[in-house]
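Let's sit down with a protein and look at its sequence and fold side by side. Once you have written the record down, we can walk along the chain together.
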Amino acid sequence: MANYLLALGVFAGLYALLALGLNVIWGLAGMINLGLAGFYAVGAYASALLATRLHWPVLACLALGMVACAVLGAGVALMTARLRGDYLAIVTLGFAEVIRLVASNEIWLTGGTDGISSIPGPFRALLTPLQFNLLFCVIVWAAVVICALLLGRLSGAPFGRVLRAIREDEMVASVAGKYALLFKVRAFALGAAVLGLAGGLYAHFNGYVAPDSFAPIVTIYVVLALTAGGTGRMSGALVGGVLVIALMEGTRFIGAAFPDLLPAQQAALRQGVIGLALILALHQRPQGILPERPRNHFSEV
């Protein structure tokens, strides 16, 4: 049970990181990015390949994975600079699917659907599974706290205020002398780097990555996490990430209450309960559990 709870803590931290990355791109800059799973996958595969083929240390793998995602994010932002709203969402969703298909078919690089296994984790060989899960839970949540604090400070800084101005009305921000495209590219790159960090941590914790781990449902869950927690506020992203994992795992055992149902029916019931809970949460708190507050000065996360 302790192993299971610690693993849940790790995945809650990973979803919190994913929500933080999305919050920079969508919550602050207003760009609807449905390509989260793609950046998550790039970070995971980049870190996994460096660790298994070049035998780089974990920290270096994570750092280069973040850089790769940041560069890719800047490229996506430049290519979609003229797109808004639904069009941007569709293109970024397509980007994520392209990444997943490349991972599935480029066997020489990614192992195809067999994935990449034996990815080293920090001190994995020296620790028991329980000790490793505990260590990694601490590592992931340390990364979450550091990212949340840094992004929170950035949100209250002039850079964050410009992003919110662009989110509210890009034309007005441009008239005020702000080069909107530059700020949007920087926000996309920064958010993508955080998404890549989550992917790298996932690879080193799980010890195995495969294309199925980066299906579009991951993006949906992260969007729901940020929406339920509160867009535009870093603490809202953290709460949303924990909430979604709690709902996903808390409903895993719901089938035991209905033993007469078939496994497929139990799975459908579980998804229905998750959806209903999120709908009720958003109905009661349409701006999220921790909505963004107007700021006239630097503020905490």
Notes: The two ends are 33 Å apart (CA to CA). The chain is about 70% helix and 0% strand. The chain has one domain: 2-215.
